[in-house]
Amino acid sequence: MAFFEKKGIPTVALTAKGFEAEALATARGFGLKRLALASLSSALTSLSPEDVRKVVGVSFDRIVEGVTRDVEVGATEGKATDKTFSFEAADRYEAVEEMNRFFLRNGWGDGFPLIPPTPEKVDRMLAGASRSPGDIVTVMLPGMGEATVEKIAINAVMAGCLPEHMPVIIAAVEGMSKPEFNMRSVACSTGPHAPMLIVNGPIAKELNINSGRGALGPGAQSFANIVIGRAIRLIMMNIGHAYVGELDMDTIGTPNKFSMCLAENEDQNPWEPFHVERGFDRDTSTVTVYGVESIMEVTDLRSYRPEHVVMTFAGTARNAGAHISEWLRRDRFWQPCLLICPDHAKIIHDGGWSKQDIREYMYHHSFIEWRYSKYGGTLDPALILPSWRWLLDAPEETLVPIVGGPDWFHVLVVGGPVGKSIYLTSVGAPVTVEIKR
Amino acid sequence: MATREDVRVGSLEVLDPVAPIAAKTTPMAARLRDLTGHTIGLWSNAKPGADVALDEVARLLADKFKDVKFVRFHENHPHGMDVLERAAKAGCDAIISSTAD
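^ inputs. structure came back:
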């Protein structure tokens, strides 16, 4: 709404109880100190039309006042202070604990203990970046904080990163600033969305970013994965201002939000690596950022023919809880991804299949019945892509594709031995950025 | 910033992790005194319930104010800047928005 206020057009936002802080924080990010809100007693989702009308009726006077009276309710000031903080305690260990309590009280942590971002540690972290501390990598959605190299370094220290991780983190922040990444949905949504980082090229081995067993899990072999992914979350919070309940409105949440970073298993990928497929040289190091909605295991320890393994993938993809119907109204809003384990990849490749063969097969074998996407017939025809409006009158058993075409599926090879792959749904497109050192 | 001599056994100095907001403060638009005869933009993000709510807002406004006109806008993508530009150019005197939450 700041867009319109800046142009001299008064606005009022119908805002549900519990979402006022988000609206005010969004406005603050765009430079508005105040915002006209008409508070509603509840969200309008999952209500019958009759109940929606009742909720609106109760707040109607506030709606009119929003555009006809000066706004008295102001947005709270931002949390940015740009200070240093000092802690005194009986010993250094207690001072660190005190710092952690203070940071948590201010909402600056993810809940796990933070490494103190002392000036000395931040200086060492900055030495890992090829850019100056004051360089602004981006103005970060959703809260529009200035992502300077220094602020990125401070959060990287807190996450436990090493200086050599900085180029990956800076490139990931650049990638998340691209519109196709869809940062607002990844950061703010009421859904459990989290960014996943996929590292390709020589830097993956240089930094020991795990591409094999347990690449997305805990443990020493995934140290780099864990701290880099954690830094991204802290950056989203403290630079993007995506704090829970303010600009992160997740209904239930997901452990994916703590950290989600891996490298592609290029050694056991029988096809070309993901970054090469996306136009980079094999020797170029890249990071791909990808807004993940949910992850599902694909177990298949029995099949030994490509069409059988990929059929198991396709069966997993037939999942109406994901944003399947979203693509009927938003072209390429979501693009699913297969993290194929090396055992499955070998079967599929040795059977003569290309990645494109996988995509084609996935597309044609993952249709679901329309009944699972039609939400009881409540979809508004005006919001559906014109070429699919015929579906609104189609029988419920009509089979509908889950994506707009085969190339919406992405294929990566990740993991250790045994036939357990992962199917991911997303809320945006993957964005691949070169890692500059 | 503390010098090395200042650093005692139990003292710790750390840097602020929070980034300042980049945007310059902008004033709010002047409010209308009356909606009679004005054009109201009804803007939704197309989430379930948002458009039903705006339909009801339009009905109630039309009952209360004479000659009020409406223009509807749907943000069908989170980065639908084109929709915002279109709404700004549509001659709306005020915008009422609903994101359903």
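Residues 39-98 of chain B form one domain. The radius of gyration of chain B is 23 Å.
thumbs up if we can close this ticket
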